[in-house]
Protein backbone atom coordinates (compact mmCIF):
# COMPACT_ATOMS: atom_id res chain seq x y z
CA UNK A 1 0.00 0.00 0.00
CA UNK A 2 1.53 3.30 -1.05
CA UNK A 3 1.11 6.72 0.60
CA UNK A 4 -1.61 7.84 -1.83
CA UNK A 5 -3.71 4.75 -1.05
CA UNK A 6 -3.24 5.33 2.69
CA UNK A 7 -4.34 8.96 2.33
CA UNK A 8 -7.45 7.90 0.39
CA UNK A 9 -8.25 5.28 3.04
CA UNK A 10 -7.91 7.90 5.82
CA UNK A 11 -10.20 10.28 3.93
CA UNK A 12 -12.79 7.51 3.60
CA UNK A 13 -12.54 6.63 7.31
CA UNK A 14 -13.00 10.31 8.18
CA UNK A 15 -15.92 10.75 5.78
CA UNK A 16 -17.68 7.65 7.15
CA UNK A 17 -17.03 8.90 10.72
CA UNK A 18 -15.88 5.48 11.89
CA UNK A 19 -14.99 5.27 15.58
CA UNK A 20 -12.31 2.63 14.97
CA UNK A 21 -10.78 0.90 11.94
CA UNK A 22 -8.14 -1.85 11.85
CA UNK A 23 -6.10 -2.78 8.78
CA UNK A 24 -3.82 -5.77 8.24
CA UNK A 25 -2.17 -6.92 5.02
CA UNK A 26 1.03 -8.94 5.25
CA UNK A 27 3.46 -7.12 7.55
CA UNK A 28 1.53 -3.84 7.35
CA UNK A 29 -0.83 -3.35 10.28
CA UNK A 30 -2.38 -0.25 11.80
CA UNK A 31 -5.41 0.94 13.72
CA UNK A 32 -7.24 4.25 13.35
CA UNK A 33 -9.27 5.58 16.29
CA UNK A 34 -11.40 8.70 16.29
CA UNK A 35 -10.86 11.28 19.02
CA UNK A 36 -13.78 13.13 20.53
CA UNK A 37 -14.06 16.18 22.78
CA UNK A 38 -17.46 17.12 24.27
CA UNK A 39 -19.17 14.82 21.77
CA UNK A 40 -17.46 16.42 18.75
CA UNK A 41 -14.96 14.58 16.61
CA UNK A 42 -11.58 16.32 16.85
CA UNK A 43 -9.29 14.02 14.87
CA UNK A 44 -7.89 10.54 14.58
CA UNK A 45 -5.01 8.62 16.14
CA UNK A 46 -3.14 6.24 13.86
CA UNK A 47 -1.37 3.46 15.71
CA UNK A 48 1.01 1.59 13.40
CA UNK A 49 2.10 -1.96 14.20
CA UNK A 50 5.24 -3.14 12.43
CA UNK A 51 5.97 -6.39 14.21
CA UNK A 52 9.25 -6.75 16.08
CA UNK A 53 11.26 -3.55 15.74
CA UNK A 54 13.90 -1.98 17.99
CA UNK A 55 12.18 1.43 17.87
CA UNK A 56 8.73 2.09 19.36
CA UNK A 57 6.10 3.10 16.80
CA UNK A 58 4.90 6.73 16.99
CA UNK A 59 1.31 7.85 17.38
CA UNK A 60 0.24 10.11 14.53
CA UNK A 61 -2.24 12.96 14.89
CA UNK A 62 -4.57 13.76 11.99
CA UNK A 63 -6.40 17.06 12.21
CA UNK A 64 -9.93 17.24 10.87
CA UNK A 65 -11.60 20.44 9.62
CA UNK A 66 -12.26 22.93 12.40
CA UNK A 67 -9.26 21.94 14.53
CA UNK A 68 -5.84 23.52 14.88
CA UNK A 69 -3.53 23.61 11.88
CA UNK A 70 0.04 22.48 11.43
CA UNK A 71 2.73 24.08 13.53
CA UNK A 72 4.24 26.92 11.48
CA UNK A 73 7.97 27.24 11.01
CA UNK A 74 9.77 29.18 13.73
CA UNK A 75 13.17 30.81 13.98
CA UNK A 76 16.05 28.44 14.65
CA UNK A 77 16.78 27.77 18.28
CA UNK A 78 20.11 28.89 19.70
CA UNK A 79 20.30 25.61 21.65
CA UNK A 80 20.16 23.35 18.61
CA UNK A 81 22.75 22.00 16.25
CA UNK A 82 22.44 19.45 13.47
CA UNK A 83 23.47 15.80 13.66
CA UNK A 84 23.71 14.39 10.16
CA UNK A 85 25.42 11.10 11.03
CA UNK A 86 23.20 8.99 13.29
CA UNK A 87 24.61 5.88 14.94
CA UNK A 88 22.88 2.70 16.06
CA UNK A 89 23.98 3.20 19.66
CA UNK A 90 21.42 4.34 22.24
CA UNK A 91 24.09 5.63 24.65
CA UNK A 92 25.95 8.84 23.84
CA UNK A 93 29.73 8.75 23.54
CA UNK A 94 30.16 11.42 26.24
CA UNK A 95 29.38 10.26 29.75
CA UNK A 96 26.22 8.37 30.54
CA UNK A 97 23.81 10.28 28.29
CA UNK A 98 20.86 8.60 26.58
CA UNK A 99 19.83 9.55 23.07
CA UNK A 100 16.30 10.18 21.84
CA UNK A 101 16.21 9.54 18.10
CA UNK A 102 13.61 10.20 15.42
CA UNK A 103 11.44 7.14 14.73
CA UNK A 104 10.47 8.53 11.30
CA UNK A 105 11.55 10.86 8.49
CA UNK A 106 9.87 14.26 8.64
CA UNK A 107 10.06 17.83 9.96
CA UNK A 108 11.03 18.44 13.60
CA UNK A 109 8.99 20.90 15.70
CA UNK A 110 9.77 21.83 19.32
CA UNK A 111 6.23 23.10 20.06
CA UNK A 112 2.68 22.24 18.96
CA UNK A 113 2.24 25.67 17.29
CA UNK A 114 3.95 29.03 17.01
CA UNK A 115 1.96 30.57 19.88
CA UNK A 116 2.52 27.63 22.25
CA UNK A 117 5.57 27.04 24.46
CA UNK A 118 8.16 24.42 23.52
CA UNK A 119 7.59 20.91 24.86
CA UNK A 120 11.01 20.73 26.54
CA UNK A 121 14.15 22.83 26.82
CA UNK A 122 17.65 22.08 28.11
CA UNK A 123 17.58 21.68 31.88
CA UNK A 124 13.99 20.35 31.99
CA UNK A 125 13.34 17.09 33.83
CA UNK A 126 11.20 14.63 31.86
CA UNK A 127 9.46 11.38 32.69
CA UNK A 128 8.75 8.31 30.57
CA UNK A 129 5.89 9.24 28.25
CA UNK A 130 6.60 12.99 28.23
CA UNK A 131 6.01 14.49 24.77
CA UNK A 132 9.34 16.04 23.74
CA UNK A 133 8.58 17.19 20.17
CA UNK A 134 6.51 16.66 17.02
CA UNK A 135 7.79 15.13 13.79
CA UNK A 136 5.54 15.94 10.84
CA UNK A 137 5.45 13.31 8.10
CA UNK A 138 3.04 13.47 5.16
CA UNK A 139 0.88 16.09 6.93
CA UNK A 140 0.57 13.81 9.98
CA UNK A 141 1.83 15.28 13.25
CA UNK A 142 3.54 12.57 15.30
CA UNK A 143 4.04 13.37 18.97
CA UNK A 144 7.36 11.86 20.02
CA UNK A 145 7.33 10.64 23.62
CA UNK A 146 10.36 9.99 25.77
CA UNK A 147 11.07 6.38 26.61
CA UNK A 148 13.41 7.44 29.43
CA UNK A 149 13.28 9.69 32.48
CA UNK A 150 15.96 12.26 33.17
CA UNK A 151 17.18 15.77 32.50
CA UNK A 152 17.31 17.25 28.97
CA UNK A 153 20.98 18.07 28.38
CA UNK A 154 20.89 19.12 24.72
CA UNK A 155 18.53 19.54 21.79
CA UNK A 156 20.61 18.74 18.72
CA UNK A 157 18.13 19.62 15.94
CA UNK A 158 16.94 23.07 14.89
CA UNK A 159 13.23 23.80 15.06
CA UNK A 160 11.33 23.29 11.78
CA UNK A 161 14.23 21.40 10.20
CA UNK A 162 14.04 18.08 8.33
CA UNK A 163 15.08 14.93 10.20
CA UNK A 164 15.95 11.44 9.01
CA UNK A 165 14.96 8.10 10.48
CA UNK A 166 17.11 7.35 13.55
CA UNK A 167 18.59 10.88 13.61
CA UNK A 168 19.66 12.10 17.04
CA UNK A 169 17.16 14.63 18.48
CA UNK A 170 17.89 14.94 22.22
CA UNK A 171 20.53 13.99 24.77
CA UNK A 172 19.13 13.00 28.18
CA UNK A 173 20.98 12.55 31.46
CA UNK A 174 19.19 9.69 33.25
CA UNK A 175 20.83 10.71 36.55
CA UNK A 176 19.67 14.35 36.24
Cα(first) to Cα(last) distance is: 44 Å
Average pLDDT, rounded to a whole number, is 74
- Percent of residues in helices comes to under 10%
CATH architecture of the largest domain: Beta Barrel
Major beta-sheet overview: 8 strands, antiparallel
Write the CATH fold name of the largest domain. OB fold (Dihydrolipoamide Acetyltransferase, E2P)
Radius of gyration: 17 Å
Shape summary: elongated
Spans where pLDDT lies below 50 across 5 or more residues: 51-57, 72-93
Element order, helices and strands?
HEEEEEEEEEEEE
Total DSSP helices: 1
Number of strands: 12
CATH structural class of the largest domain: Mainly Beta
Find the CATH superfamily of the largest domain: RNA polymerase II/Efflux pump adaptor protein, barrel-sandwich hybrid domain
Report the structural category: mainly beta
Q: How many structurally independent domains?
A: 2
Strand order of the largest sheet: 1-2-3-4-9-8-6-11
The percent range for strand residues is 35-45%
